[in-house]
Amino acid sequence: MRTDMITVNTGSRPTVRDITTEARRFVAGQGDGLLHVFVPHATAGVALIETGSGSDEDLITALNELLPTDQRWRHRHGSPGHGRDHVLPAFIPPYASIPVLDGDLALGTWQSICLVDPNGDNPTRQIRLSFLPG
């Protein structure tokens, strides 16, 4: 197994950050196997979605509607409504596994690997990439 940690700056507002390029670079030349992507944070997730067509913004809009940043949350440290950020991983898990064939990601035509980070209080995220050979 080969593992690496990458750092992603997400800024101070909710964001969907495409990390497919970094993931492709990590598995290049590795043959067949499985890429496991894991975000060791309690307020972020990993999604396989289309980007660049508005879907990333649509996801943030849907999360804001489903999990509003208001005072309903019992978890109350950080920015107002921050408790919703701690609920996010129940909806968008902090991990994804992607097949790797001949050293390339076996993603669908429109799929990208994305970090989903609604938490503007933590602008820097770590992502663990692990390659398990087949």
TrEMBL record:
SUPFAM superfamilies: YjbQ-like (SSF111038). Signal peptide: none annotated. It comes from the Bacteria. Pfam families: YjbQ. InterPro entries: UPF0047_YjbQ-like, YjbQ-like_sf. Belongs to the UPF0047 family. This is YjbQ family protein.
